[in-house]
Amino acid sequence: xxxxxxxxxxxxxxxxxxxxxxxxxxxxxxxxxxxxxxxxxxxxxxxxxxxxxxxxxxxxxxxxxxxxxxxxxxxxxxxxxxxxxxxxxxxxxxxxxxxxxxxxxxxxxxxxxxxxxxxxxxxxxxxxxxxxxxxxxxxxxxxxxxxxxxxxxxxxxxxxxxxxxxxxxxxxxxxxxxxxxxxxxxxxxxxxxxxxxxxxxxxxxxxxxxxxxxxxxxxxxxxxxxxxxxxxxxxxxxxxxxxxxxxxxxxxxxxxxxxxxxxxxxxxxxxx
Length: 272
Description:
12 helices
């Protein structure tokens, strides 16, 4: 009886998981297929031939806007946000390992932006920049707006990491004569490196596809999410699907590279 019950539960969970995967990747597969629509094809099935025409047309600025420029801006902005998120989150995690006055208030202040609507933060930062005489731009005001989104997550992750980190490793290194810097560089940093890589990936992906906090802060030039939104209002060809395919493949490549980096660090640490 118990065996039959477990079997039934397994099948129910399997069906639920299959429906979830279908709901998650079904639209992506439709976009992927339609991006190879023939030159005379439209936005819906059936396919009118198969070609790479819309991928080539994607990089023609007069046809779909400044896709190349918006992609470069989002890439550079994502890397900037990633670096700052990793550094600040690491420093915050190290600082909060020691109790100090005002730590609780500082913690809630750091994560407060998570409960504020993103569009309000975007509007507020854009207004402040205009009031102080600075023109909003993707590398200044949008950069700051993205950090209000990525830093709280990075800090929370590092808090969890250091909460489980045993100080015994550091004490052993100091007993062997290592300085504070040597202990950090050769003991602490290698042990938390996979978590830092994860924080970096998290910061990059949150920035790369952020729309609401970029809307009022990007200035004259669009980032990729804003460019895609603009395309949905004036593009009526499968080139939009080609853009979706390219950006999805790029996102998966970033994830695979990150996983590769984590595995490399883990194997290198195991050898040591």
